[in-house]
Amino acid sequence: MSARLPRQSSRPLRRLLALLAAGVALSACVSTTSTRNDTASAIGLQGSKTELKTSSDQTSKDKRASIRMQLAIGYYQEGNYTVALDEIKQAIAIDPEIADAYSVRALIYTSMGEMVLAEENYQRAMRLAPLNPDLNNNYGSFLCQTERYAAAMAQFDIALKNPRYQSPVKAMVNAGGCAIRQKNFDAAERYLLDALRFEPDLMPINAGLARVYYERRDYVRAGNYINRVKAVAKPEALPADVLWLAVRVERKLGNKDSETSLVTQLRRRHPGSPEFAAFQRGAFDE
Asked: How far apart, in whole angstroms, are the C-alpha atoms of residue 87 and residue 91?
């Protein structure tokens, strides 16, 4: 039986997967050959004329493994972790060299609170594809979640330095969020402003910048980004941490009506959350 670490909430992970960190999972649906190992990628980065594999190069085995991957991802997103693990097991049985399969299995184990098994699978994925930027991003998110911040930031930076990375905003936002966890608000601002240039209407970017400026006590700028959050997402769709941040920003700015409306949403949508408990305690400055 595997060692089981204290269970962590799966809500932020699923939300991250839906918004930002699904790159590994979704890329696996397109092509499993592209991440079988990093030899071709490393050669390509050095200017070789070697052709890179694409989805049209998939063999019958590749396609069968890819189908299992897609099924696993679907079950994972539905929260059916046991069936998702079984599908991943079958994908790996078809081809044990698919790096994405181990990364997706790591995501599943993380949601289940099986952090030791998640670590083992990320390590296996990284051995197979150490320069795959989607893997670097996802492993970086895991390292940050487990408070290995320096290693996490290194993985994000590896992803961002890869000229073939098709989704750099994911790593920028994750790096910004990880920097916030470390209270390194200067670094968080840099990453998030870089992301903003690509995706100015993405809610997590604007919420992250609002948090940065709130922590710096620059409440006017924080309020500007909260307004952008409210412009791109309905209050009832916001997660508890963003609603609570918005409540505190509006309180600092003296916007009573907006504060009251946001508190109502927090109470209605997230009554059992730590954020609502903080509101009830009056812990506005914690």
From this structure: 6
